[in-house]
Each structure stands twice: as C-alpha cells, then as structure tokens.
Amino acid sequence: MVLLDRAAVLESVRVVDRARPGDWCRPTPCDRWDLRDLVAHMAAQHHGFAAAARGEGAEAAFWRTADPGDDPAGAYRAAAGVLLDAFASPGLLDRPFALPEISTRTVPGKRAVEFHFVDHVVHAWDVAVALGLPLRLPEPVLRAALPIALAVPDGPGRRAPHSAFRPSLPPQNTTGPEAGTLPLVLAVLGRSAHWRPPEAR
To answer: Which of 14, 38, 69, 110 is least crowded, fewest Cβ atoms below 10 Å from its Cβ?
Structure first.
C-alpha cells in the first residue's frame, strides 16, 4: 500500500509541476477551490498525514492549510517530500494514526495510508484535468484504489460544504483515454470523468 500511495503522490507532483503562473486561478472539479486552493489543501494533507505517521497527528497545526506563497508548486513538492519520508519509516502500517479530520479515534496505519492513497489518486486527477493533462497512473494502481473508494460511506454527509467527496454518480460509459478503472473511481467519489474547465467545453 505504501508503494501505491507513493505512485499517486509522485504523479500528483508531476502534474502540479506542469502549472504555470497563469494557471493557479483555474477552476477545478472541487467546486470551492481553484487550482491554487486545491494544491494548498493537498500540501496540508501531506503535512497532516506525515505528522500522524510520526505520532503527532492530533496537533491541529499540522493540518492547517498554509498560503503557498509565490511558488505553490515548490511548496507542494516540499510537502510531498515530507510525506514520502514519513511514510517510508519502518512499521508504518502497524502504527495508530490520529486523523482528527476523519475520526475521533485513532486509525490503523494501513487504513490511514489507504485514505491518503485514494484521496491523492483523485486529487492528482483533479489537477491534471484542470490543466488539460492526462493522468499517468498505471491500471493496477487504479484497480487498487477502486475497492477503497467503494468503502467510503456514501450518505448525506457528502453533501456538506466541507465534505472531501460529493455523492456518488452513476457509472459512466467512456472510451479512449478515459476508459478503464479511473472513471469508476471518480464516479464512486462524486466526480465525472467528463469534467472539463469551462473554457475547454
């Protein structure tokens, strides 16, 4: 699972690094966030999960979204490095994680890494599609994400303003580069594989 998560994180770094100065105000599939907001949120999640891996996840400061300054891509790349270093520590999957945004109780390490993994599969796609780029995650990685996505509760809470995912959508028929498991993962978590920035429609 750690290697799968690493693949998702590295792909997210690749697509974020493709953003240019004029791209940070682009809309994303996350309705309330433009690209700058989304990438800042992703960086905060890296710092929060890294803190949880170190046994410090209960401290709210690690989860706060920070202003990425003049170099959002650089700030994101640094946050991803912190996360990857933390997740490389021995015994990670057997460690309890404090994830205050998800549960009032600690979460087993394996489940915590699964949460982070599926979140960054989807957010890597969010960034890629906002920039008009293809997502380059191998099909085995996406197939590993699908059962985790299916296990995310799909109830009224997904309609809350700050919910991580929107209510699930019906499976979508896709062909060409959009075919495969990715559209299923996206639909389960409330995103349409057909989403495009307004100017690209």
So the answer is: 69
The distance from CA 168 to its chain's CA centroid, rounded to whole angstroms, is: 17
The model's pTM is: 0.90
Nearest-angstrom CA–CA distance, 95 and 147: 22
Q: What is the DSSP string of 143-183?
A: HHHHHHHHTS--SGGGGSTT-SSPPP-------GGG-SSHH
Give pLDDT tens digits for 25-59. Answer: 999 998 889 999 999 999 999 999 999 999 998 88
Do the beta carbons of residue 85 and residue 50 sit within 8 Å?
yes
Report which of 171, 177, 121 is spatially closest to residue 149, judged by C-alpha positions: 121
Q: What are phi and psi of 65, to 5 degrees?
A: -75, 125
Contact indicator for 125, 186 with CB cutoff of 8 Å: yes
Query: Do the Cβ atoms of 125 and 184 come closer than 8 Å?
Result: no
